[in-house]
Design brief:
This protein is α+β, with helices and mostly antiparallel strands. The chain has two domains: 65 residues, 2,3-Dihydroxybiphenyl 1,2-Dioxygenase, domain 1 (Roll); 72 residues, Signal recognition particle alu RNA binding heterodimer, srp9/1 (2-Layer Sandwich). The chain contains two helices and nine strands. It has a five-stranded mixed beta sheet, covered by helices on one side. The chain has a four-stranded mixed beta sheet with strand order 1-4-3-2, with helices on one face. The longest helix has 11 residues. It is globular. 14% of the residues are buried. InterPro entries: Glyas_Bleomycin-R_OHBP_Dase (IPR029068), Glyas_Fos-R_dOase_dom (IPR004360), GlyoxalaseI/FosfomycinResist (IPR050383), VOC_core (IPR037523). Pfam families: Glyoxalase (PF00903). This is VOC family protein.
C-alpha cells in the first residue's frame, strides 16, 4: 500500500513578498529556506514550518486582488465561510504548553488574533470556555499580512472510533 507521508508544502499567493517574508521569519519564526525567481517576473519563496513541512508563497505583480468572504475568511469567527475550492485556513501544529506564548507573540507584534486560546469540543457550540476532558484541539487563530487565516493548533487527545459520529452531508439529501 502506498501512502503519503504528510504535507510537503502548502502554496499560497501573497500581496507583498517583502512583507510576507518579514511576517513569517520575524513574527512566526519560520526560516526562509528557498527562493525562486519565476520566468514571468513572479517569485516563489518557501518557509520551514517544522516537521519537514513548509509554507510557500507565490507573488506576481499582476495577481488578482484578494476576495474576502469568497477566497478567504471575511471575519473569524463571525463570518468563517469561504467558497468551494478555496483554502479556509492553514493550521500549524504546536505543543499545548506553547499556545499562550504564541498568543503573546502575536499580541506583541500587533497581529490580529483571537483574544484567547479556543477550546474545541463536541458541545452544540463547538467550543468551551474552560479546558475539559472533551476538548480535542486547542487553537489560536490569526491572519497574516495577506488576510490569510492561520491557526496554531494543539491536539489534546487520541482519536478513536467514537470520534466518527456523523454521516457526511450531501446537497442531494439536504
Amino acid at each position: 500500500m502506498t501512502r503519503t507521508r504528510g504535507i510537503n508544502h502548502v502554496a499560497l499567493v501573497c500581496r507583498d513578498m517583502k512583507q510576507t517574508v518579514d511576517f513569517y521569519t520575524r513574527v512566526l519564526e519560520m526560516p526562509l529556506f528557498k527562493t525562486v525567481q519565476l520566468p514571468d517576473g513572479g517569485q516563489h519563496f518557501f518557509f520551514d514550518c517544522g516537521g519537514g513541512a513548509s509554507v510557500a508563497f507565490f507573488w506576481w505583480k499582476d495577481a488578482p486582488p484578494a476576495a474576502p468572504g469568497i477566497a478567504s475568511v471575511e471575519h473569524f469567527p463571525m463570518k468563517p465561510k469561504t467558497a468551494i475550492g478555496s483554502m479556509n485556513h492553514l493550521a500549524f501544529d504546536v505543543e499545548q504548553d506553547q499556545l499562550e506564548a504564541m498568543l503573546a507573540r502575536l499580541k506583541d507584534a500587533g497581529v490580529p488574533h483571537t483574544p484567547v486560546v479556543v477550546n474545541h469540543d463536541d458541545s452544540p457550540q463547538g467550543v468551551a470556555a474552560e479546558m475539559h476532558e472533551g476538548v480535542f484541539v486547542r487553537s489560536v487563530y490569526f491572519t497574516d499580512p495577506n488576510g490569510i487565516m492561520m491557526e496554531f493548533a494543539s491536539t489534546t487527545k487520541e482519536f478513536g472510533p467514537d470520534d466518527i459520529a456523523h454521516e457526511p452531508a450531501s446537497l442531494e439529501t439536504a
